[in-house]
Every structure is written in structure tokens, then in C-alpha cells.
Amino acid sequence: MRGTSRNVVASLVTALSGIAVALLVTPLVLAHVGRSGYGVWSISMAFLVYLGIAESGLAPVVQRHIALAGGAGDPHAARGVFWTTLAAYLAAGLAAFALIELLAPVVAGLFAFPGALERQATDLLRIIGLAAPLGLAMAALANLLQGLGRFVAVAATSVAGSLALLIALLALIGADASLAQLGWAVVAQQVVLVVGRCAVAADVLRGRPRLASRAQVRSMAGMSARLQATVLSVLVNGQSDKVVTGFVAPPATVGQVAIAAQLAESGRLVATAPLVPLATRFAALAGAGDVRHLRSELRRLERLWVVAVLGGVLIGLACARPLVAGWLGDGFGQAEAFAAVLILAYGANLLTGARVAYLRAIGEVGPEARMGMLLIALNVAFTVPLAIVAGAGGVVGGTLGAYALGTAWFAVHARRAVPDLPPAPAVRSLGRALAAGLPAAALAGVWGSAAVALVPTGWALALVGVGALGAYALFVPLALGVRPTPSGARAALGGHPGGARDQAPAATRGTSTVQAP
Fold it and tell me: How far, CA to CA in Å, does 451 sit from each of 129, 168, 256, 460?
């Protein structure tokens, strides 16, 4: 199996390819169809986004069961999980397609688009409906590949799908296609993803299809139902800040909160990508029954994870202002401040990542599910009164308080649910991370500010990002005490040699395998 360090890089490539294509698609569509047309495009794409959010409650479960089967040396069980999931996904995708085809005129009519745009919206929705079953089939294949530890294959096909979307979009724009016809670019992306992932999973697909056992289905259904609390928490908390702000502040301020949330959420997406391959060891070792090695891996990987998150948060805080300014220019001071608060909030919660992955690997998802519901309750309880007192600043401040308390609650209750959990990383490790992170963050902040001052908006964003990555590359070896070389990185990520440890993952919180522009 491929090493963990390679899988980490591959997972980052997968996440970054999605972010990059979104950054490129937006100006292309906006320039071709205008702001009103882009609004129609955004609403239509939301159907795929929500489909991905719904699937993210099941993806970690499927990946875990394939990983457990791989760790136990039972390829028939892994194949059964895949084919059962694929059948369920295709049924759901075809139902979504039929529903969208039927309700497209009704949905388009809800938004009071002008006559011509309403017709375009109806046609676009019907084309996007074709992407629903394709997207879910692609997601089932991605779960299989990640369950088998084939992260490089997932990354390669993700990049191919992103390129297919961009090439098809450019070709359609060059042919002066209508707004609705641009939807075929999304269908092309999904077709490339399905075909590519079928090709790299051909050895599994050639085997005789089989269904999962009733025990596996019951286990997956129960675990997925509990993980929906996490999915709901990501969805509700991600939107509630903007909604609450809308009641106490003008629309322009709501836009500032939305910009800050988009920036912080992009950082969270990149940050959680490495958890998938790191969690591979947990699921595979759980399947192999190697409890001693499983716990030692949690101790080692959790130290790496906490150090990595602390460095990312510090550099993110230092770069919040230059990132917003380099992206959008001047006049977004509120967004810069809000982004810093949300980076801190999300970063606090990300500290639980390695422990969440471990609990998923052993099937103990109760603490995570309860944390998800608690985060929803705390976010509403904090943001509403603070919004009345302090406006939009109170909303993001309340979110920070909710995530801090929710994370502390999880730390306590996870140990109660699983008493033999190893202790948290030593304070000495955290002190070393802070000592390395503060100068790295300062360096990134100075570089970013200089880029914004000297380079035009847009180009400055790229330079700020390069500076942040460079500072992080400097931080990691200093914080971990390894050489700043590829061999040093492998030494930090690599574990004991052995077969099962590089097998499949119990994926991270909210990770969806549905890919949309």
C-alpha cells in the first residue's frame, strides 16, 4: 500500500482541486451570463451541493466498513459494502433526477426570475438533474477507492474532472452557449469522474457483484443516522450566522460575514483533507484486531494532528487580513476581522479531528453526534443574544464561544464513552508548536501585507497563499523536530512497517465524495 505521506498529499490535491475550480468557474460564468444569470447558476448548483452534504453522513461509514474488511483480509465483505452502497446511491440519484425534472418549473418560479431567465433556470435545472445519479455513482466509487487506500487515484480523477469542467465550460462559452447549456459542462465533469474511477477500480468491478450482509447494513444505517447530527451541525451553523446577522445588520454587513465564512470554511476543508489518509491506520488496525498498535497510533498521530492544526490556525490568523484584501481589495475590513474570529472558532473544533477519526474507526460515534447537536444549540443560544447586544461582531463571537465549549465538552465525554482512550498530547509538545508557530505566522503576515501593498488585487491573493504555504512548510519541521526535507516529512508521518496500517480510512467529519463546481 502507498505510504501515509503520499496519501496526505493526494488528499490535499483532491481538496485543492475543488477549491481551485470553484475560483476559476465563478468569473467565467459571471462574465458570460452577468450577475443575474450567475445567480441562477448558483441556485442550480446548490442542488448538487446539498446532495453532497446529504451524502457526507454516509461516506465515512462506507469507507470505514471497506477499511475494516480490508484490515481483516476479507475482500468479499468490502465488495459487498461497495455494491450495496452503489445500488442505494443509484436509486437515490435516479429519484433525485426524476424529482428535479418534475419540479424544475416550480422551483424556477419560486425565485421570481424575469421571464427569459425563468425559462433558462428551468432548462438548467433539468440538465443539472442528470448530474445527480452520475454524482452519486462517482461518490460510491470514491468511497471504494478511499476505503482501499487509493488516494492518489482519487486525486488524479478529481483533477481530471476539474479539467473536464473547465474545458467544457470554455468550449461552451466560446460557442456562445446559453446559460442553460452551460449545465452540460457539469455533466461532462461527472462523466469523466465516473469513467476515470471505474477504470482505476476495475479490479474490484470485475469481481462478481454481491450485497452486504444484514448485519453490515444495520451497522451502517445506525452509524450513518447518528453521523447526520454532524452533517446537520455543519449545515445549520454554516448558515445560521448569516441569517442571524440579517436580522440585526444591513445586507452589506451580511455580505461581509458571508465572505469571512467562505474564507474560513475553505481553510477548514483543506485542513480536514489529511485526516482521511491518517485515519486509514485506525480503521485498518481496528479491522485487524490489533488494539495495542491502534492505541499507539492514536497517540502518535494525534500529536502530529494537534501540532499541525495549531500552526495552521496561527498562520491563518496572521493572513486573514491580507487574504481578504488580496482577494477582494479594500473596503472589507469587517470581513477581515470576522474571518480571523471564525478561523479561531473552526480551529478550536479541528483539534478533535484525530480523536473523532479514531472513534469512527471503532464505531463509537455517539460523542461526535452529541457534540454536533450541542454545537447547534450553543451557536443559537450564544449568537442570538450577542447579536442583539453587539450586532454582527456578537454573531461571530458567539460562534467562537459555541465551538470552544463544544470542543471542551467532547474532550470530556469522549473519554467517558471510551475510558481507555490515550491521554491528550503533552503540554510540552504544544509549547514547542507555539514557539515555532508564532514567528512563522509573523513571517506569513508580513509577506502577505507586502503582497497586498505592492501587487494588484487577484494576483496578490496568489502571493499571499504562497507565503502562507511557505511559512507552514517552515513551521512543521521546527514544531516536530525533524529535518525540513521529504525524508523528514516521511519520518514524521510514517509509522511502523506493516501491512494493515496503510489500509483504508474512516473518513473525517463532513467529508463528502460528491464533487460539484
Answer: 42, 33, 22, 5
